[in-house]
Amino acid sequence: MPRKCGRPPKSAEPMDAKQKLIDATVAIIKREGADAVTVRSVVEESGLSIGTFYHHFKNKDDLLMYFVKEASFDSFELTTPLEQLPDRICELYFHLIDRYMELGEDFMKSFYTTGNQALSAYMCEEDGKFADGTVMARCEREIESAIAKHILDQKTNAHVLSMDVCTIVKGCVFEWALNDGKMDIHEILIRILRRYLGGL
Domain 14-57 sits in which CATH superfamily? Predict the structure, then answer.
């Protein structure tokens, strides 16, 4: 029988394949810890090819970044009033922290390492600006709104203050990891940000 010409049928839609890779990553983290996540382990767990992996992600760090960049922080509706700025900023960052928490302590410990170049790139600035859609860019906009409404001192530098807040959050996450998840990260972050931002 002659072979049909044309492209072979796709076994899965692109988004289905991407979701399989993500689900495989979560399964590995929950079963073995995030250190066990490699391109090969994800490919084997998902049953997909290495080529499919590299079609969706640049490398392991890029895959892990999905859990941060999964959604734009521009779209989150915050319920805490702007007048309660420390609590509002905490609410914003809790969207990020709670996403980590859902994946467990091993994920957070592995993700927040100096070796994670993707995290470093995400949490830093480029040319004096945070990337659009990041939690830091949204934080800066919230601070700018608070300055405009005279909730914060008019001389406050919103960008620098956003960098400070980001540093505080990272410090709390590292402390949480060092204490094997035994401290209440929500309570500590609220307390520190209330003291820090309250003074402004």
Answer: Homeodomain-like (1.10.10.60)
Q: Which two tokens stand for residue 130?
A: 């945070």
Instruction: List the chain domain ranges.
Output: 14-57, 69-198
What phi, psi does 129 have (nearest 5°)?
-135, 150
Assign 3-state DSSP to the chain and report helix, strand, coil percentages, each to 5. 65, 0, 35
- Residue 26's nearest CA partner among 125, 100, 124 is 100
Better pLDDT: 49 or 11? 49
**CB burial string 79-104: b at 16+ within 10 A, e below:** eeeeeebbbbbbbbbbebbeebbebb
- How far apart CA 33 and CA 108 sit, in angstroms, is 10
Residue pLDDT, tens place only, 68-102: 666 678 777 899 999 999 999 999 999 888 877 77
Chain mean position to CA 67: 5
Determine if the pTM surpasses 0.85.
no
How confident is the model over 107-124, as a mean pLDDT? 68
